[in-house]
Amino acid sequence: MPLDLSDTLVVGISATALFDLAEADALYKARYVKNPQSALEEYRAYMLERENEPLRDGTGMALVRALLGLNRYAQSETKPLVEVVVMSRNSPETGVRVFNNIRSRGLPISRHAFTGGQSVVDYLDAFAVDLFLTTNVEDAQRVIDAQACAAAILKPPPHAAEAPPDDQVRIAFDGDAVLFDDSSELVYKTEGLDRFHTIEDEKQNEPMKDGPYAVLLRRLARLQERLPFGADVSPVRIAIVTARSAPAEMRVINTLRHWGVYVNEIFFLGGVPKSKVVKAFRAHLFFDDQDLHLDPAARHGRVPYRSDSPLFTPLPLDLSADPPLLVEKVEAS
Questions:
Q1: Which residues are catalytic?
Q2: Which of 17, 20, 122, 276 has its CA 20 to 30 Å from the CA of residue 96?
């Protein structure tokens, strides 16, 4: 009988988001610049020589550990609360180092997709993925454009972040253009803050349309329901961190009520830097659409706009650099 994952949160994560493979990636890029014909073979030799060596944790490791830990509360082994799938452009042979590190850490991950240089995006539906975490900008953009599932680009692991609690999963979301669609954001950017506040106040009882992460929020809410805890004391803790402020706050509250979704914490900042709140919340991941709100010491995922959105600007292919300095500015998102 096929495995039923219809009520399970399925997270697909690239090998480079689960582990820190920056050294191997840098070697391949350097070799490719020198000799494109031999670069892949040199990368293969490098990985084979080191397939028994440990890897450092990637940005997504803490979240994966916390999510998989929730399965101890599952009432049936055949219907896990959370499933994690490792998805990689590596070949199965060069992926042995990844397999070995998964085993050495005792991670209960049994499903993988290693595609030998091809994009993994075409296989998300086959694995019933609800959230795809990657370090590859092009893959994340393809997922968002196809509306296949929620997707975010993870930047390199932070070195100064305070670890989230071991017994909780803490996830924070931005509001506009992330949980909600980008129509309100467009009003703010094209007509200004006063007009944005006026319209949001007038439409406070009109639910906002889904953004790219709305379905994921509902899946997390369902995960909370499946746990043997009330939402207030659940080990899955959800926060919304938005630069909205009064009088634009009630539309958010009423939209969540319309969706039937409970969040543990919500912050209407009105210009206060998001980074400080996210650090205080100790999120495993904070999903935002703008790097200027994100802090190098915080674990975060960059949510790309759809290519057909008026807000779309192409992301740089290399997101290894730290985000720009934070700007204290009132943002509609």
A1: 174
A2: 122
